[in-house]
Automatic annotation (TrEMBL):
<feature type="binding site">
    <location>
        <position position="147"/>
    </location>
    <ligand>
        <name>substrate</name>
    </ligand>
</feature>
<keyword id="KW-0378">Hydrolase</keyword>
<dbReference type="InterPro" id="IPR015955">
    <property type="entry name" value="Lactate_DH/Glyco_Ohase_4_C"/>
</dbReference>
<keyword id="KW-0533">Nickel</keyword>
<feature type="binding site">
    <location>
        <position position="170"/>
    </location>
    <ligand>
        <name>Mn(2+)</name>
    </ligand>
</feature>
<feature type="site" description="Increases basicity of active site Tyr">
    <location>
        <position position="109"/>
    </location>
</feature>
<dbReference type="GO" id="GO:0005975">
    <property type="term" value="P:carbohydrate metabolic process"/>
</dbReference>
<feature type="active site" description="Proton acceptor">
    <location>
        <position position="262"/>
    </location>
</feature>
<dbReference type="Pfam" id="PF02056">
    <property type="entry name" value="Glyco_hydro_4"/>
</dbReference>
<dbReference type="InterPro" id="IPR022616">
    <property type="entry name" value="Glyco_hydro_4_C"/>
</dbReference>
<keyword id="KW-0326">Glycosidase</keyword>
<feature type="binding site">
    <location>
        <position position="93"/>
    </location>
    <ligand>
        <name>substrate</name>
    </ligand>
</feature>
<dbReference type="GO" id="GO:0016616">
    <property type="term" value="F:oxidoreductase activity, acting on the CH-OH group of donors, NAD or NADP as acceptor"/>
</dbReference>
<dbReference type="GO" id="GO:0004553">
    <property type="term" value="F:hydrolase activity, hydrolyzing O-glycosyl compounds"/>
</dbReference>
<comment type="similarity">
    <text>Belongs to the glycosyl hydrolase 4 family.</text>
</comment>
<keyword id="KW-0464">Manganese</keyword>
<keyword id="KW-0520">NAD</keyword>
Length: 440
């Protein structure tokens, strides 16, 4: 069987050890020849890279492995690029979350004004990454997790419209499928989902079991009765448990479909703000918990010289999804995943050039997405408002337009008020100097 060359961009990410573990777990299905970790931050990269050396020596001895901060080394002869970078790091994430909260608006890394700020930072680095990859590996598949995935997907689709080997993905649908599996005591790999929406803004309309029976009504009843928890609840921070618990509230108010957890910010912006601590946001929680735990554990393994007793992985869904997506493409498996693609009639009553999230069969020629037809007025209205926000955010970046940025934020359901939008925008511009284009 062919062995593949993979590079992980953002090799110093808190998610990288989990990804290494998934690659190792799936070495028979998706065998690697060479793996390179690439990051612009040498210090973060070295901690995870030294951990990886020990981990692979024990778990994947025939793998060629290296870590680097040199793009030329990273992108040579690559079959798959797995990308998960964070422009500006957690320090900027913290500002993305805290600045909107000062004005009474949701502070979240991918939703609302925070997602807007992060999006305008991510675009430049993501375009650069694609150009760098294409300079040395023109046929490599680029599978991207970098957030905010909706904005990144829209921007890349504009700059590289003919590049059919860029695929943007999100692990939250898989997290939800696994969580339904836990709730029903069933294997989530047997589920066939029907899903539509935008990234972090979608719904499961049906979830078929292997006999074609729709499990959505059963799931709803069980959520009403027992609430809802993530599949890996025991490893989750409190804010994630609160987020999953909101699914019950969303299903009481909007019972038709199973909502993506991120819809809580758009359905209930005021309630979410009332529950957020403006001095300790998710970025603080991540720095205090996940980041600290991952880096401490990697250092401990390096000191011990063995990864035998490591528990550095905190969420299997993330690593498993990207490896399975790559494998399904590499071996033309045509397995089903929920991914981000251009609409072109998949949701038949919204515009064609929207980047939507739907189920697709993934094979050697990429995604073959499954259409959902016409959607009802409520979902159409919700999606079109959010889509207009996303489009205007990306316009603002490319046209360096203050006015488009203001319109984008005004359209976002977490803001709405034009005066608030202007104040938040002005403060975000100050905070993002050097990361954003200068808006005029
Ligand atoms: P992190 O800050 O721990 O890791 C990101 C790494 O990227 C850092 O080591 C940083 O130095 C590096 N980096 C920044 N700019 C870079 C560039 N231009 N080139 C190469 N490396 C660069 O952040 P994290 O919390 O581990 O998340 C990583 C990314 O993955 C984020 O964008 C996050 O939002 C995303 N993510 C997405 C999903 C999804 O569902 N789509 C799921 C999980 C994480
Ligand atoms: C989910 C989302 C991702 C997000 C991740 C981590 O999996 O789909 O887009 O990056 O959660 O969020 P956190 O707040 O834990 O960093
Ligand atoms: Mn996501």
């Amino acid at each position: 069987m062919k062995k593949y060359n993979v590079v992980i961009v953002g090799g110093g990410s808190t998610w990288t050890p989990g990804l290494l573990s998934s690659l190792s777990k799936k070495k028979n299905e998706f065998p690697l020849n060479k793996l390179v970790l690439f990051d612009i931050n040498a210090e973060r990269q070295a901690v995870i890279g030294e951990f990886a050396k020990i981990f692979f020596k024990e778990n994947y001895p025939d793998l060629q492995f290296e870590y680097t901060t040199d793009k030329e080394v990273a992108y040579k002869d690559v079959d798959f690029v797995f990308c998960q970078m964070r422009t500006g790091g957690y320090k900027m994430r913290e500002l993305d979350e805290k600045i909107p909260l000062k004005y009474g608006c949701v502070g979240q890394e991918t939703c609302g004004a925070g997602g807007f700020a992060y999006g305008l930072r991510s675009i430049r680095d993501m375009i650069e990454m694609v150009n760098d990859v294409r300079a040395s590996s023109k046929d490599a598949w680029i599978i991207n997790y970098t957030n905010p995935a909706a904005i990144v997907a829209e921007a890349l689709n504009r700059v590289f419209p003919n590049d059919k080997k860029i695929l943007n993905i999100c692990d939250q649908p898989v997290n939800l499928l696994r969580s339904y599996g836990r709730l029903l005591n069933m294997d989530p790999y047997e589920f066939e989902p029907v899903y539509f929406g935008l990234n972090h803004f979608g719904w499961f309309t049906h979830l078929y079991d292997k006999n074609g029976i729709d499990l959505v009504p059963v799931i709803k009843e069980m959520v009403y009765k027992n609430g809802f928890k993530p599949v890996d609840a025991e490893q989750r921070d409190q804010s994630w448990l609160d987020t999953y618990a909101m699914v019950e509230k969303m299903l009481i108010d909007y019972p038709e479909y199973l909502p993506n957890t991120y819809l809580q910010y758009y359905y209930y912006p005021e309630y979410k703000v009332s529950k957020q601590d403006p001095n300790f946001t998710r970025a603080n929680e991540v720095m205090a918990n996940r980041e600290k735990r991952v880096f401490e554990e990697c250092r401990r393994v390096v000191e011990a010289g063995t990864a035998a007793a490591t528990n550095v992985v905190h969420n299997d869904a993330h690593g498993d999804m990207i490896v399975e997506v790559a494998e399904s493409i590499a071996h033309n498996r045509n397995r089903q995943y929920i991914v981000i693609v251009e609409n072109n009639g998949l949701i038949s009553n919204i515009q064609d050039d929207a980047m939507v999230e739907v189920a697709a069969l993934l094979g050697a020629n990429g995604p073959r997405p499954m259409g959902v037809g016409k959607i009802d007025t409520f979902y159409k209205g919700m999606i079109e408002q959010q889509l207009a926000y996303e489009k205007l955010a990306v316009d603002a970046y490319f046209e360096k337009s203050y006015n488009k940025a203001l319109k984008a934020l005004t359209l976002n359901r977490t803001i709405v008020d034009g005066k608030k939008a202007r104040k938040i925008l002005d403060e975000l511009i100050e905070a993002n100097k050097g990361y954003w284009p200068e808006l005029n």
